[in-house]
Design goal:
Elements: H1 28-31, H2 36-41, E1 47-52, E2 55-59, E3 62-63, E4 76-83, E5 86-93, E6 105-108, H3 109-112, H4 118-135, E7 147-150, E8 155-158, E9 164-165, E10 170-178, E11 184-189, E12 197-198, E13 200-203, H5 210-222, E14 226-237, E15 242-251, E16 263-269, H6 271-279, H7 291-300
Parallel strand pairs: 1-5, 10-15
Antiparallel strand pairs: 2-3, 2-6, 4-5, 7-8, 8-9, 10-11, 10-13, 11-12, 11-16, 14-15
This protein binds zinc ion (ZN).
Zinc ion (ZN) is lined by residues 140, 142-143, 145, 158, 160-161, 163.
């Protein structure tokens, strides 16, 4: 096991995150035209990303995109945007249509995003997020009447009172808390069985700033007061509709007390301690797509060692 050199006193913001590329031009000025989306669906050159129950067809490490010609009627259609001269549309079904069943392996975003080309990862995260919203907003929150999509799928309007309803994203903060010795605070969540440790996180509440949410969530889950919250980067997390906002913050003390409900254990780790325990398989930490993984690796100074028996 080799340890990286100690991290600089002031950490840089998180680098590119796997779901944050945003490489597609969403064409906000085009999609308000009511003829725009029907026109694309009548054009065989349009590329359609099919989604069923959150999964999309993948073959050879890329999304399988279809022409709209011959597709069965989708439950929802949304304009995704343009990239390199091509126009992209998402089409959602409750189940994989028979005619598309053999067009690739139907996989979820978390399974494939890290291996997809940047454009495909951008299309998949956008499509999943907006289709998740459509799937749960079929009725007007004011009067209960059905709503229907307008503006190429980026707004829903009430069929009774005409009110407009915009896509919802739930902001959540996630924070790497360090102490005066630059140890990292990680918590074991009750849902994860007690051996999986991650950074503290929680939803931003109405009427609350991001900085206040960082302070409140850390205090609620650990009893620790933090200062100097610094924004580090963000990543959409459409499971179903979160936006994760990453922060670093400094603890004013080290007496961490788990709340006993959400968090069952809290520990301060040196880099050597965390690497050794992960390598020996005594605990696990997030790996892969999540911003928690990026925050932990940023503090550590690079990827953590793999557990023994998993390739080393
Ligand atoms: Zn209404």
């Amino acid at each position: 096991m080799t340890l990286p050199p100690s991290a600089p006193a002031s950490l840089p913001a998180l680098g590119p995150l796997p779901l944050s590329h945003g490489s597609v031009d969403r064409g906000c000025e085009r999609r308000t035209d009511p003829e725009w989306l029907p026109g694309l669906m009548a054009d065989p050159a349009t590329r359609v990303l099919a989604l069923a129950a959150g999964k999309a067809p993948v073959a050879g490490g890329s999304l399988v995109l279809h022409s709209p010609a011959g597709l069965p009627e989708p439950r929802t259609v949304v304009y995704l945007g343009a990239s390199e001269g091509q126009e992209f549309v998402a089409a959602g079904w409750d189940e994989v249509p028979d005619v598309l069943a053999g067009t690739g392996d139907w996989l979820g975003l978390r399974e494939v995003a890290a291996g997809l080309p940047v454009r495909d990862a951008s299309l998949f995260v956008e499509a999943l997020a907006i289709l998740n919203w459509h799937a749960t907003h079929g009725h007007c929150p004011r009067c209960g009447a059905p709503t229907e999509p307008v503006q190429s799928g980026w707004v829903r309007t009430c069929t009774a009172d005409g009110t407009l309803h915009f896509p919802r994203t739930d902001p959540a903060i996630i924070v790497a808390v360090t102490d005066g010795a630059d140890r990292l605070l990680l918590g074991a969540n009750a849902q994860w069985g007690g051996k999986h440790y991650s950074t503290l996180a929680g939803f931003v509440e109405p009427g609350e700033s991001l900085e206040a949410a960082v302070a409140r969530e850390v205090a609620e889950e650990s009893g620790i007061a933090v200062t100097g919250a610094q924004y580090a980067g963000s990543q959409p997390w459409p499971f179903p509709c979160s936006l994760m906002l990453g922060f670093t913050a400094r603890a004013s003390g080290t007496d961490a007390v788990p709340d006993g409900e959400e968090i069952v254990d809290l520990r301060w780790f040196t880099r050597a301690e965390l690497a050794a325990e992960v390598e020996e398989g005594r605990l696990s930490v997030p790996v892969g797509l999540s911003i928690a993984s990026a925050l932990i690796e940023q503090w550590y100074g690079g990827p953590l060692p793999a557990p023994r028996g998993l390739g080393n």
